[in-house]
Amino acid sequence: MKKVKKFLGILLTFILVFSFIGCSKGETDTSGDKVTNAPKDSGKEADSKEDTKTSTEKVKITYSMWGSAEEGSKTQAVADKFNASQDRIQVEVVSIPWENYMTKLNSMATAGQLPDTGMLKEDGVVQWSSEGMLNDVSSMYEGSDSKPLDSLAYKYKGATVAYAAANEVLVLYYNKNMFDKANVAYPPASFDQAWTWEQFVDTAKKLTVDKNGKHPGEDGFDNQSITQYGCMVENLPWQLETWALSNGSGFYSSDGSEVKIGEDASVEAIQKVADLYLKDYVAPLSVGQTDDGVQRSLIAGTVAMTTNGAWNVGTCLNTAKDEGLSYSVAVLPYMKDKVTLSTGGANVVFSQTKHAKEAMEWIKWYNSEENSWSLIESGIWMPTLDKWYTDETLTHKWVDNPNFPPYAEYKSAVVDYAKSSAAKSASWFYTNHTTDFNTLLGSVLGDVWTGKTTAKDAITKNLDALKAAHDGNQ
């Protein structure tokens, strides 16, 4: 099946020290495949599963990752640093090509031969937890001076079954030159001063221009000859939920057990996004199938504001800045409630391991900011631990560098925003079958974006199918 992100850049093999991310791509996704004939002992205590070892013998654990042999070698080099840092645990990295990764893991699970720990895509975590294949890792940060932000904990039946290895939040990027030329105030970087949806649309109209210099609402404006659009709101299904939540509803109930996308508030939010193109004439047509929105809008020089993930700073905006783009970052507008989504790919401890305690020690070390620093300072990843958001010395170390927009703007619009009450976990942190649901939703909404049908009609007509997809019965 198709997934519109191989997360969200999720740039899951970005060369240096880590090989996976909570950013976006668009590839075939098999992470939702059901595991069969697999042991279901996820709830067991780690100590009951430990093999007896002599005091001088290292516990050997395996760590699986998707990527090439070269990427596996680079990850093994990082593991070797861990191996040399203590005398109790020896980590061996097993690299599996992306296209075969989940198929291989499913086969290993059936045979009872899973690695001790490894990478798992966002939308596979709850799936595998429901099959009893993941350990509870709630104790992983006990005794530490900091733990990951609450929005980065994957939950199943109240237990934390994984933490994101990196943080990503959705923000608003804008072209400063376009705002300056139009003599329009920049979007707010402060959560407390976030624009309402109406303010956002009104500003977008001031920044939308046809070939004769006219704006939407002015006499003579030609919506067929627009040369610059005021905004683009990313409408990939998983990002689209931001607006349903902001409008007081969502795609699911808070515990992920029920589908809420058919509620009036969710339908209204989706229609408002569609109407940016259909009625407000402030956005280009986007059909919600590719995740290159920043490149197609802000970097292309055709759009003044665009919503997307924080990872874009490192994956494309740094290069665009070097080539002359003057941009900055702001918080998202809101409909009723202020909302941004947090996400990030997971490292998990498989329940078949006999060495859960050691596996947790390894991935805690591996997930530490020090070991993914090149990705953090480049703007691809954000830290996970709370202290990087609250300790000003650490925040300066992270953000006060040329790869980011000015410190005060980025700190407010990204760092403080990610720690605020607006930051909600993306749905795959707490509910199952999100790949099937999002794939179907993307198809259902295709005619909504072009105006052939309304969000209400499209979702009402397909609501039973969406509920079935959520239940795993598609």
Provide a count of the helices. 17
How much of the sequence lies in strands comes to 5-15%
Compute the number of structural domains.
Answer: 2
Q: How far is it from the N-terminal to the C-terminal residue, by CA?
A: 12 Å
CATH names the topology of the largest domain as: D-Maltodextrin-Binding Protein, domain 2
SSE arrangement, N to C: EHEHEHEEEHHEEHHHEHEEEHHHHHEHHH
| Spatial ordering of strands, largest sheet | 2-1-3-12-5-4
The CATH class label of the largest domain is Alpha Beta
Tell me what you see in this structure.
The strands form three sheets. Strands 2-1-3-12-5-4 form a six-stranded mixed β-sheet. Strands 6, 9, 10, 11 and 13 form a five-stranded mixed β-sheet that branches. The chain is built from 17 helices and 13 strands. It is of the alpha+beta class and 474 residues long. Strand 1, helix 1 and strand 2 (89-96) form a beta-alpha-beta unit. The protein has helices spanning 69-85, 101-110, 125-130, 176-182, 197-207, 237-246, 264-278, 293-299, 312-322, 356-366, 373-378, 387-390, 392-399, 407-419, 434-444, 446-449, 455-470; strands at residues 59-66, 89-96, 117-120, 153-156, 159-164, 168-175, 209-210, 226-228, 305-309, 327-330, 340-343, 346-349, 423-425. The longest helix is centred in the first third of the chain and has 17 residues, at 69-85. It has two domains: 46-167 and 344-385, 3-Layer(aba) Sandwich (D-Maltodextrin-Binding Protein, domain 2), CATH 3.40.190.10; 170-340 and 429-470, D-Maltodextrin-Binding Protein, domain 2 (3-Layer(aba) Sandwich), CATH 3.40.190. The protein is 35% helix and 13% strand.
